[in-house]
Amino acid sequence: MNNLWKKTTLTVILHDEISDKPVKKSYGNVIQGFSTDAVDTFAQGLATLTGLTLDHVEATNVSTMAEI
To answer: What is the count of structural domains for the chain?
Structure first.
């Protein structure tokens, strides 16, 4: 049986104030059926935990076929 699964990739760009360099973090399959609020909350939490400044966040959904 084939089911359509959506894989979510969350890409967060943080900024390190000390070294003045961007830090890119990508996470796969973090949020299924993501909303703007969920993405923003996750990214802001990540920035708080790392002590870096949130610069940009982007979530993409890629449809793939998986056989179960």
So the answer is: 1
